[in-house]
């Protein structure tokens, strides 16, 4: 099995940070992707990263590479936000394309269930969206929002090594479970 892991928004993407400026979203995304890479490789999965180092790669280049390499799934890791100041919105949600394949539906549900049961965060559900990384990929693709940077409690979790490890293990477990089902 060959998976592409995408560390979401690049480090310089405007506005993608906690309201207090203590964490950029990319810091969380990149840390979780690196942990997932190690875990998946230990299980024999070939892992390809859409970002190398801290460079920001245009979305069309990420999806084109995934399509060219014929990966079995594309997983994009993110931290969510609601507005630009701290508020009470919280939880985890997983997105798939507006016309998802059955494999995408199963992968998205596996990830959502695994993340929510592991982290004990609010389950905001599996949703559909017309995001480029979901629309322009030819394989099952999901975008995972692991918590809200605009929620003080979740922002603290997103900045913590234990929470990042929990998220990476939960998502990796879900991918491996999906692999067995597909």
Short synopsis of the structure:
This protein has 182 residues and is α/β, with parallel strands linked by helices. The protein has helices at residues 25-42, 59-69, 102-119, 132-135, 152-158, 161-181; strands at residues 2-6, 46-49, 73-80, 92-96, 123-128, 141-148. It has a six-stranded mixed sheet with strand order 2-1-3-6-4-5.
Set down the secondary structure blueprint:
Layout lengths: L1 E5 L18 H18 L3 E4 L9 H11 L3 E8 L11 E5 L5 H18 L3 E6 L3 H4 L5 E8 L3 H7 L2 H21 L1
Parallel strand pairs: 1-2, 1-3, 3-6, 4-5
Antiparallel strand pairs: 4-6
List keywords for this structure.
6 helices; 20% strand; alpha/beta; single chain; 6-stranded mixed beta sheet; 182 residues
Task: Describe the overall structure.
It is a single chain. With 182 residues, this protein is an alpha/beta fold. Helices cover 43% and strands 20% of the residues. The chain has helices at residues 25-42, 59-69, 102-119, 132-135, 152-158, 161-181, and strands at 2-6, 46-49, 73-80, 92-96, 123-128, 141-148. Strands 2-1-3-6-4-5 form a six-stranded mixed β-sheet. Strand 4, helix 3 (102-119) and strand 5 (123-128) form a beta-alpha-beta unit. Helix 1 (25-42) crosses helix 6 (161-181) and helix 3 runs antiparallel to helix 6 (161-181). The protein is globular and about 40 Å long.
How many individual β-strands? Answer: 6
Any low-confidence stretches, pLDDT <50, length ≥5?
A: none
The portion of residues forming beta strands comes to 15-25%
The major β-sheet equals: 6 strands, mixed
Q: DSSP helix count?
A: 6
Class per helix and strand makeup: alpha/beta
**Lateral strand order in the biggest sheet:** 2-1-3-6-4-5
Element-level helix/strand string: EHEHEEHEHEHH
**C-alpha-based Rg, rounded:** 15 Å
Shape: globular
Fraction of residues in helix: 40-55%
Mean pLDDT: 94
* Ends distance: 11 Å
């Amino acid at each position: 099995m060959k998976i592409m892991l995408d560390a979401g928004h690049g480090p310089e993407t405007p506005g993608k940070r906690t309201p207090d400026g203590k964490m950029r979203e990319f810091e969380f995304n990149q840390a979780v992707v690196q942990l997932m890479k190690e875990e998946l490789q230990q299980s024999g999965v070939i892992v390809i990263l859409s970002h190398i180092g801290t460079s920001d790669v245009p979305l069309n280049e990420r999806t084109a590479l995934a399509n060219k390499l014929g990966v079995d799934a594309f997983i994009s890791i993110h931290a969510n936000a609601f507005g630009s100041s701290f508020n009470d919105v919280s939880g985890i949600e997983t997105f798939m394309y507006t016309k998802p394949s059955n494999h995408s539906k199963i992968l998205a549900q596996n990830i959502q269930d695994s993340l929510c049961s592991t982290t004990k965060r609010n389950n905001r559900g599996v949703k559909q969206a017309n995001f480029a990384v979901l629309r322009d990929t030819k394989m099952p693709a999901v975008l995972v929002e692991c918590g809200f940077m605009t929620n003080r409690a979740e922002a603290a979790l997103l900045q913590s090594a234990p929470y990042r490890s929990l998220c990476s293990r939960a998502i990796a477990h879900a991918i491996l479970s999906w692999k067995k089902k597909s």
